[in-house]
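Chain X:
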Amino acid sequence: MNNLSSFVHLHFDKSANELGDIEKRVLEKAHARKIISTDINAALKAESSFGERMADSIARIGGSWAFITTFLVFLAVWCVINTIILSTRAFDPYPFIFLNLVLSMIAAIQAPIIMMSQNRQAERDRFEAAKDYEVNLKAELEVLSLHQKIDMQVMTEIAALREDIARLTQKLGN
């Protein structure tokens, strides 16, 4: 990769000025022989705020079988307490209006939190795709560079063999 502009034109089929930021960054890293891959989890964790981490935790818990099972047990206990145990003095008699109010409030709070977590997951997916593209592009450039080096080596060896054959033919002819 000695002549960078010819390398860019040969492999990207456009001039260096026409390259995007990602391609330029990858080329600089490839030219400097530096690693381009990063730990995506660490990079995203370093950038996330307390609220974002909290939303992820709530979504992780709210979408688990443990939460569903626990919540079903809670609902069953609520119904049993208010229909059988406290049959005369139930604090929320059947049709469980207070329970419906509590469930509605939980759903009203939980839904936007889960959506925030989903938005962060989509952002993470886009970031991961961009990183994958960079790593793949650098790998392709490295493979192309290796092919070029091998081709140059083979051409040098073929030229040397032709010279040797010409010399041997000349000696045999004398």
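Chain Y:
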Amino acid sequence: MHLVYPAVLAVLLFCTGLYGVLARRNAILVLMSVELMLNAVNLNLVAFDVWLRDELHAGQALTLFTIAIAAAEIGIGLAIVLQVHRNRGTSDVDRLRDLRDDAPDTGPDTDRADREEKAEAAA
């Protein structure tokens, strides 16, 4: 087997995934693009494992590990995206750059006053 064919296919998959990560705005499509990139890496691992005729099949073992990590990543990532969509109403990556809500800026003095009011109310 020639190593060129799977290597070229892996490069094309990886470049497609990289374009998807950099150009897409929808978080779900970004996650799918990351999966494409991981599959390109898996293809390279298996191709080099076959080409080198490794008796331990380390490339295939690493591929199984990568598939397990990718499954966990997509599960957690999809759960985060769905929760953000429920809270904010959008999964647009450009609108989700801030981790906090658009609340008015409160300084440390107002935070201390709020804590003192809560302490007095509790007492």
